[in-house]
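G., before I forget:
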Amino acid sequence: MLRYLLHKLALIVPTVFGISLAAFAFVRLLPGDPITALAGERGVSPERYAELVERFGYNRPYVVQYLEYIGRVLTGDFGISLATKRPVLGEFQALFPATLELATIALIIAVLIGIPAGIFAAVKRGSWFDQATMGVALTGYSMPIFWWGLLLIIFFSGYLGWTPVSGRIGLQYFFKPTTGFMLIDSLISGKSGAFRSAASHLVLPAIVLATIPLAVIARQTRSAMLEVLGEDYVRTARAKGLAPRRVIGLHAFRNALIPVVTTIGLQVGTLMAGAILTETIFSWPGIGKWMIDAIAKRDYVVVQSGLLIIALIVMAVNLIVDVLYAVINPRIRVQ
Amino acid sequence: MKKKLTFAAALLAASVLGGMANAKQLVYCSEASPAGFDPSPWSGGNDFDASSRTIYSRLVEFEHGKTTITPGLAESWTVSDDGLEYTFKLRPGVKFQTTDYFTPTRDLNADDVIFSFERQWKKENPWYSYLEGTGWEYFTGMGFPDLLKEIVKVDDLTVKFVLNKPEVAFLPDLGMDFASIVSKEYADQLDKAGTRQQFTQKPVGTGPFQFVDYQVDAVIRYAAWDGYYGGRQKIDDLIFAITTDPAVRAQKLKAGECDIMSYPAPADIAGLQADPNLKVDEQEGLNIGYMAYNTTQPPFDKVEVRKALNMAVNKQAILDAVYQGAGQAAINPIPPTMWSYNKEIKDDLYDPDAAKKMLTDAGVTDLSMKIWAMPVSRPYNPNAQRVAELIQADYAKIGVKAEIVSYEWTEYRERGKAKDRDGAFQLGWTGDNGDPDNFLFLLGCDAIGQSNYAIWCNQEFEALLQKGKATTDVAERTKIYEEAQVVFKREAPWLTIAHSKVFMPMNKKVTGFVMDPLGIHRFDGVDVTE
């Protein structure tokens, strides 16, 4: 198991360097630059532009800039935001709990609904339920997040008035964050109604963010289950007269779980990408909105370091998923 | 038992309502997060709303809702005859805000004024580089480093600005956000503690509201400052709920989650106007949307060609289709609400036939050109792509083939500055300080490569521009600028498209909000009626 873990860790090192290089190059490939972006419509004189380029060091060869950047990152210094002049890591730490909270709730929704829906669709293959579930899943998968979010806001917040429009908690609740997770902080605050307010603010963004992963998980569970249900050992279990629930739950589902766990692990990346749009629509103060603002302002430091940190987190989650495989299926460790 | 419960419920309701009545709150749905709370390093309108207009004050202020100058922290001033010395008498007894992180021991004095400017000006000042990479772009952009010779403390409450050259817009410039006055005592305290960064995170000013808390990208909280020299505000708590999407801001306003919002999307305005709980204030914007020809490139170097192209455009169609009634045709490079606007000037007549003939007479046939369209919606031009399409169709009628080009926003402005740029370039401007020079400088010879996208350097216009800058008498300046507008119209470096209206939707319970021609959102004097 330890060898397996070391092998996986060894693979991460070149990936991290690759991503850091890609992030560094990506932001510089974008048209424009931070100096012009920050100057706005007023513009900046050529002399002033040259002075600022010199000050930021953007006139040096890219290799030198990259090596300096990576050297700093290796010492834990992710740089200072060009736009806000605050440390990138500090901003990330302040905003990440909001994204993590949203993504976690979204993933829970996706798993709790997606897996049972997929199992049921597989068991009742060809039924109206199967067709309806897969139809809804396909629709959910194809739905543009931006439009979907706005539609839910207009209907549930505007028309029905059931949920708040945006934000993380009602403005009447004011307390210093302890953990950064609003559900927990609202409980700690001891203010009556705060938790309920925080939870109600989470409903719509979590549904929007969960939509695509839910669709993917439901479809993956269905196809994995269908494959397993056709296996000889399942037929044998049925022939032995085992209860259908036991056959599906114990014999079929456990074996169908590997590709489903893989899919769930991969959804972490989807959630991070989806968070960018979801957070923008719902004014959710997380890293998605932060990255969008940074890209618009050509804040090289935030974009390159932010992408790297997010990639590190996604890789860490995938590593955990890999370890989980090994726990679920010992053969993987040998392979 | 039932009676007891009813009584308890009534008591609870009374205490809640009582609590609400005690603290009057105004929630403003703002459009973006501020980069920081120091009023000087940044240049975004949202940065100014969140810092300079709420927390800070200036030596002079713009009259609420106007562009005229009134006394601010300076109760009076004198200008020397040569226009080189401005002496300000500071208002006595002005208090800096007392917060849980700073308790001032003295009132505002000349040291604060000098510090506020020198930190942006003198590179040897330790506060010049307290934020990594800060360029003090507004201070530099307004030409202050070349303009200022020295700032002298005459006594505690008298401060003298000595200039290198006369600058008539100097007073309005001092009313701008970058010229907000900060506390030197607070800066010294942070210096000692080694926590200079706190200056922009936990601000201290002399303005109507004091800073309470900022949850990054989410909520900014302010409280009325009891010691404000202009009197305590009627609202107790001012909250900025940062909501980037305009459609979501509109929904929040309708749902009562905020009381007032900035920059509604044009498509949402009718819906907001129809809501019985809301009102939508509107005002002529101090702005202009234009299309600049590259006057150095043939055939646009010929006045007749530029005039002919101007005459080919049906501005009314643009106003109807793009501005949807929320704008008026622009004739001059400055908006009609601004002093010195020349009312005598008539716009180029929309006449495709005459335009076609003028082009032929100028020897231009089979003209193919580019029309540049901004990729973003701006207050002065909500949909540049649509404007470009309409102009393209108009040009087709006179036999000119136009291709529409667009680039990513920063790239767009960068490419537009190229001296050999092909075609006509759409852009616009929103005024900073209500002075005509703040619009006309866009066409100055010095602005080529920066904001002069027509790459137009006309000696007659330039001489008037410089003369206007050096003249203090307003009546005389008015004449100079009226003449400059005549030259502009005759030479036609731009197609002046439109001046747009600006809308401010709010709940009907909000009173006293005055729309500002400079696009500032000020909450002093605002009240909320129950």
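The mean pLDDT of chain A is 87. Chain A touches chain B through 53 residues (CB under 8 Å).

More on Monday.
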